Amino acid sequence: MERLHKFLAQAGLGSRRKCESLIESGRVSIDGKRVTKLGHMIDPGRDNVYCDGELIKKQKKIYFLLNKPRGYVCTNVAKSRDPRAIDLLNHIEQRVYTVGRLDKDSEGLIIITNDGELANLLSHPRYGIEKTYQVVVKGRVSDPAIRVLKRGVWISEGKAMPARVKIISRRYKHSALEIVLREGKNREIRRILAKIDHPVISLKRIKIGPLKMHYSLRVGKYRALSKEEVKSLYSLAVVN
């Protein structure tokens, strides 16, 4: 026997939290009967599970690292007005989704998979997986402004505090920073930098945990993760 939301996550419908939402919204049924309560147990070998009328089957787990271009959104909504990051993997037959988000105006690394358990580990704030960004902002960022960032900046969800902030270069009209986050609120970097009057010109994610940007992974391209890389991501989540 297996919990329904875990089965859905392993079938590639999203993280466990997203699958719980699918159940609660009445989109999941078992042998023709709608299920809306969490904690429901199923027998994967006997029960027929459907989501939005489509029969769901477990899939082989696959993992990719994409260098997302600007202009692409991290969503699985089929009728998105904007091009989707997952559509860059157009030869993949399995149902996949992005782990976390990288906003439309940003570029860089994002993991694409059908492994709901790993997606949950990497996305949940409690695990504190570090993500590193290169950011170019307007204006010359002063040392006092950097100290403000390190102490934390208040936004609507509360205090946003980067794990680390480093100046890469400073010019009169713009500055380049490296910022490390352990939990990412919606458009957090853009919002905290706007608060200190240094709006973002460009933002690129260059590292997710142990996975680093490499010059060979061009914008819009992707590669499969090795077994060792997947293990390292799981290990990092457990350690944190």
From TrEMBL:
PROSITE patterns per record: PSI_RSU, S4
UniProtKB keywords: Isomerase, RNA-binding
Origin: domain of life: Bacteria
Pfam family, any one: S4
Protein's GO biological process: enzyme-directed rRNA pseudouridine synthesis
Family: Belongs to the pseudouridine synthase RsuA family.
Name the record gives this protein: Pseudouridine synthase
Organism from which the protein derives: Candidatus Scalindua japonica
